Amino acid sequence: MYEQEGYELVGVALEVYNTRKFGFYEDVYQECMEIELTRRKIPFESQPELRLDYKGVEHEKRYRPDLIVHDAIIAELKVVRELGNPEIAQLMNYLKASRKFRVGYLLNFGNSDEFEWQRFV
User: Residue 119 and residue 1: Cα distance in Å, rounded?
Assistant: First the structure.
């Protein structure tokens, strides 16, 4: 499901990681991803609002995933030593809350040795 689109997304993230390297804040990688996605003409939306409800009552609070790519994939950017349960739970909650998207990627720019990513369906 959306394998080619995911391949393109990871390619963009690898380009950003290889160019920018390790050590910046997440906002820097977010902007670099947006620049590279635009350069490659890959459609994306930056930090869109996802509405939540509880028993039919809409929350005032909104979720904001970092990127929606190809109107199909939620991409969550991280700058952590290694991806773990909190990051996975956040992405899974974004997927559940959206009720539209079924594929998500965690993209971690925080590992000094290598770029780390995980795909979830």
Answer: 11
DSSP 8-state symbol, 62: E
Question: What is the pLDDT, as a whole number, of residue 77?
Answer: 98
Cα gap 39→33, rounded to integer Å: 10
Query: Scanning the structure block, which residue is given the tokens 């997304």?
Result: 9
DSSP secondary structure letters along 31-61? HHHHHHHHHTT--EEES--EEEEETTEEEEE
Q: Shortest CA distance to 70 belongs to which of 9, 116, 121, 1?
A: 9
Model confidence pLDDT, tens digit, residues 72-110: 999 999 999 999 999 999 999 999 988 889 999 999 999
Entry pTM: 0.92
Residue type (1 letter), 91: L
